[in-house]
């Protein structure tokens, strides 16, 4: 095997070794999200229809698939197996096409993000007085995002005649205290959350495109290596 083919072989091996580690990391992340989601299962189901659980399951499946595909790539490169490398290229192409399909779906339905977020927040806000989980969840959002209510402090005024929750205040006095409307954050949490989602979505898009670019490189290298191995096998057959 020539120097160029040997170089491609080892590049492909180390590429897939890193790819396998990323797959294991995705599995671990999915398991963590699933475990964390189970701690507030009632709230998650009520607010998002167990979206967190489904997302965790999807991450675990994708991570497992990435690990299995990388295994074929590593073994095929080391053993110089034309069959395994070709199978690896096909799997990698399938993952790439799936990512493209998911990306297109999310782009087409991007305008629904605000509607879904509004519905979820409204459900949790309505349960604020009756559910400890809902109260802790919304207090955390208001405190961390410097916001109040879904669209603003008026959401609380419409629901109760008492003062606003402590987490609405610019100076949070903690549980057991209240907040006057004049001292509250005026921005709604929906606006803050959607803006954060858009910012993170742009970063996530760049990461996904980087991964997709790496997958294309892996496909090209694997097909080149598979072709080189097949040609070498043919030359040996003619000898």
UniProtKB/TrEMBL annotation:
Membrane topology type: Multi-pass membrane protein
A single Gene Ontology CC term: plasma membrane
Spans through the membrane: 12-33, 53-78, 85-108, 204-226
UniProt keyword Membrane, yes or no: yes
Keywords: Disulfide bond, Membrane, Transmembrane, Transmembrane helix
Pfam families associated with the record: Tetraspanin
S-S pairs: 148-168
Subcellular localization, as worded in the UniProt entry: Membrane
PANTHER family referenced in this protein's UniProt entry, alphabetically: CD63 MOLECULE, TETRASPANIN
Family membership: Belongs to the tetraspanin (TM4SF) family.
Name by which UniProt lists this protein: Tetraspanin
Organism in which the protein naturally occurs: Sipha flava
């Amino acid at each position: 095997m020539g120097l160029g083919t040997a170089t491609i072989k080892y590049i492909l091996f180390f590429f897939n070794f890193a790819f396998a580690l990323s797959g294991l990391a995705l599995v671990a992340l999915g398991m963590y999200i699933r475990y964390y989601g189970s701690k507030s299962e009632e709230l998650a189901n009520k607010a998002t229809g167990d979206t967190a659980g489904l997302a965790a399951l999807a991450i675990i499946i994708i991570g497992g698939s990435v690990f299995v595909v990388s295994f074929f790539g590593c073994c095929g490169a080391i053993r110089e197996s034309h069959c395994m490398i070709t199978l690896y290229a096909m799997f990698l192409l399938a993952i790439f096409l799936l990512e493209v399909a998911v990306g297109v779906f999310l782009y087409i339905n991007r305008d629904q993000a605000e509607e879904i977020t509004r519905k979820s927040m409204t459900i949790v806000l309505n349960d604020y007085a009756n559910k400890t989980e809902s109260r802790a969840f919304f207090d955390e959002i208001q405190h961390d995002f410097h916001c109040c209510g879904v669209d603003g402090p008026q959401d609380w005024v419409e629901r109760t005649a008492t003062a606003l929750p402590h987490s609405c205040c610019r100076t949070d006095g903690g549980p057991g205290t209240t907040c006057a409307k004049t001292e509250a954050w005026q921005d709604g949490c929906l606006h803050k959350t959607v803006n954060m989602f858009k910012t993170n979505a742009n970063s996530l898009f760049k990461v996904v495109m980087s991964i997709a670019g790496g997958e294309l490189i892996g496909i090209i290298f694997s097909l080149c290596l598979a072709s080189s191995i097949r040609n070498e096998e043919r030359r040996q057959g003619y000898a």
